[in-house]
């Protein structure tokens, strides 16, 4: 009976954590979309608008997807200085800041990606970014 109670409590806690994480992700996505709308078509960084950056995949030199750009971040001077990236195939989802310096846009067909010189291992070694509470 005790083991069953522990199992039920653990499942409930995990479910609550997942709901909170999803709510934080939804809040971040809405804030990023609002910022992109306000910024409009004006290039924000790398010759791309904020909306184009948000729609971009982060890829390595071979075109392998390493993550998704989920937020465009600006420094005190209001210039884009980093991107918040969700690392590809991370479970639970992991987010890292990627400096804009050294990135370059790559157009493949109708897609515009952002290429990084880091490897997947180097990207994964960056410190985690915790999403703000919803």
Q: In total, how many domains does the architecture comprise?
A: 1
Give me the CATH fold name: SH3 type barrels
Order of helices and strands: HEEHEEEEEEH
Q: Strand tally, please? A: 8
User: Which superfamily, in CATH terms, is the homologous superfamily?
Assistant: PRC-barrel domain
Determine Rg (CA atoms, Å).
17 Å
What is the strand arrangement across the widest sheet? 6-5-4-3-8-7
What share of the residues does DSSP label as strand, in percent? 25-35%
Q: Helical element count?
A: 3
Q: Class, according to the CATH hierarchy?
A: Mainly Beta
Anisotropy-based shape: globular
Low-confidence segments, given as residue ranges, are: 4-11
Per CATH, the architecture is Roll
- The rounded distance between the terminal residues' Cα atoms is 35 Å
Structural class: alpha+beta
Largest sheet: 6 strands, mixed
**Which whole number gives the mean pLDDT?**
84
Question: Which short descriptors sum up this protein?
Answer:
six-stranded mixed beta sheet, alpha+beta, single chain, 134 residues, 36% helix, 31% strand, globular, SH3 type barrels, 8 strands
Structural write-up:
With 134 residues, this protein is of the alpha+beta class. It has a single domain, classed as Roll (SH3 type barrels), CATH 2.30.30.240. The chain has 3 helices and 8 strands; from the N terminus they run H-E-E-H-E-E-E-E-E-E-H. The strands form 2 sheets. It has a 6-stranded mixed beta sheet with strand order 6-5-4-3-8-7. A hairpin with a 7-residue loop joins strand 5 and strand 6. It is globular and about 35 Å long. The protein starts with a helix and ends in a 10-residue tail after the last helix.
